[in-house]
Specification:
single chain; alpha+beta; 8 strands; globular; binds zinc ion
């Protein structure tokens, strides 16, 4: 009996230490944070990348360190395709300081579907991120919808309805 108890407590200790390892990682991918410029942080890739739309509708991509600050990083390939499926706009990126800025502006509209492709280096796999660049203001936080950090972001809430209810 004694040996079983010892075994169980060993398992318990192992489980606890596994949990604390996760906690120490400090990489909370669930919590939404805005990027240093107030853009959308793409967390499906390491390092994370901030997707930000500038005033002239260009796309600015900034690689981030673990403190969510801009970091110097050179990616192998950055490509963005946006807009209508039949007449998509292709954007390529050039380095500008710590960030990458697109050569062209996003196509017209307030909600532009985009496909962002990132290849970090020659050996790494290409990561594809698809989302809608919704440039309308979020009703409940200080960000535009594409960079929204409040809870309603992905929960299927009807934003238009929320706005109407507020009036
Ligand atoms: Zn929001």
């Amino acid at each position: 009996m004694r040996s079983i108890t010892t075994f169980l407590s060993t398992v318990a200790i192992a489980a606890v230490s596994t949990l604390s390892t996760f906690a120490e990682d400090g990489h909370d991918h669930e919590k939404k944070v805005a990027g240093p410029n107030g853009g959308r942080v793409i967390t499906s890739i390491e390092p994370h990348v901030e997707f930000f739309v500038t005033k002239d509708r260009k796309v600015q991509l900034t690689f981030l360190d673990e403190n969510n600050k801009a970091k110097e990083f050179s990616a192998d390939t950055l490509k963005l395709t946006g807009g209508k499926r039949l007449a998509p706009t292709q954007l390529s990126f050039a380095k500008s300081g710590n960030a990458y800025v697109s050569d062209k502006a996003l196509p017209d509209g307030k909600a532009i579907p985009v496909v962002l492709q990132i290849k970090l280096d020659k050996k790494s796999k290409k990561v594809t991120e698809k989302f809608n660049v919704d440039l309308s203001e979020c009703p409940s936080c200080d960000h535009l919808e594409y960079a929204c950090i409040c809870a309603h972001g992905d929960d299927g809430h009807d934003h238009e309805k929320e706005k109407a209810d507020k009036k």
